[in-house]
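Sequence, please.
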């Protein structure tokens, strides 16, 4: 059985002793490592240390930001105004009290600088169905004309004839044969 050596260090050395325990000071925490017979370090952790590191990391995240509140309707949203001290998002489950909302929910942002609500999203727009006639700036072509043009993007009435043209060693061929010049005749 191998004996184990103990080391208390400020930083883990570059070259480690085999079969050793290293206690490394690290600010408010201590790290510990065990080395194997080849001198390779394996870190040792414990729940308290890990939880403390997570808590410390989370505490460095910003705690500010607009919270999201849930209310039943526009009247409940408006009732929040006197108590609002900063920016907030409010999801209104039944926003039909807003004349711009025909059905369903809407999300509003409270702007404390202007003491006003801004609608940022609504349920109705989640399943928008557009028709061709409703598109502003659309082409004057009909969808059928566009579909036809796409289908004919590269077709020709004489495609069978055109497909007979080819090339061989840089010379133009038709149906595999050389294309003679018209003046190349015996009646010249």
């Amino acid at each position: 059985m191998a004996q184990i050596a103990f080391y208390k260090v400020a930083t883990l050395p570059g070259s480690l002793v085999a079969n050793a325990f290293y206690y490394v000071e690290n600010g408010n925490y201590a790290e510990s490592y065990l080395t194997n017979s080849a001198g390779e370090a394996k870190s040792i952790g414990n729940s308290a240390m890990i939880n403390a590191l997570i808590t410390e990391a989370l505490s460095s995240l910003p705690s500010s930001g607009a919270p999201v509140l849930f209310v039943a309707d526009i009247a409940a949203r408006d009732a929040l105004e006197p108590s609002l001290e900063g920016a907030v998002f409010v999801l209104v489950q039944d926003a039909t009290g807003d004349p711009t909302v025909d059905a369903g929910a809407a999300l509003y942002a409270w702007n404390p600088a202007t003491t006003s609500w801004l609608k940022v999203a609504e349920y109705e727009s989640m399943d928008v169905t557009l028709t061709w006639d409703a598109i502003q700036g659309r082409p004057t072509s009909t969808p059928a004309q566009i579909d036809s043009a796409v289908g004919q993007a590269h077709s020709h009435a004489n495609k069978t004839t055109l497909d007979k043209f080819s090339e061989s060693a840089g010379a133009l061929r038709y149906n595999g044969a050389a294309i003679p010049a018209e003046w190349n005749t015996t009646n010249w």
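The first strand starts at residue 5 and ends at 9.
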